[in-house]
Write a structure and sequence with these properties.
154 residues; 4-stranded antiparallel β-sheet; 45% helix
Length: 154
Amino acid sequence: MLKNLILLSALFMLSCTTAQEISTASYNENLAQELGADDYGMKSYVLVILETGPKDALITDKEKRAELFKGHFSNMGRLAEEGKLVLAGPLAKNKPKRGLFILNVKTLEEAEELVKTDPTVEAGIFTYDLTQYYGSAALQQINKIQKTIQKEKI
C-alpha cells in the first residue's frame, strides 16, 4: 500500500512538473520566423489527397508496381529532405481516397508541379486533389523528429 502511495505521488509530481513546463513555455521569435509562422504560430500549406487513379487496376505486374511504389517513396523522401513535404501518409484502406501529403508551398501550382514528379501519379495509379491548408508552422519539424523515433526505414 505504501509503495502504491509513493508511486502515485511520484506520478502526480511528474505530471505537475510536465504541466508546469508546458505552461511556462515561451514564445521563440527566431523559430517562428524560421518556420514562417504568423502571430498564431500558423502558416499556409497545400493539402494533397491522393485518390485511386484510372490505371491502378490496369497495372497488375507485381514488379512494375513495386518499382513504381519504390519511386513513390523515394520521391517523398527527396521532397521531405528539400523541406517541401512536411507530412505524408496512407488513408486507412479508404478507396478511392488513398493517401495525403501536406506540402510546404504557397500555391496550388507549385504543389501540382511537385505532385507530378511522383512516379505513381505519372503512371496513373493515383490522381490528386489540391486545396489550401492553414495549419501549425510546427508541422515542418515533424520530419526532423521522425528520424529520431524511427527504427526502420520505409
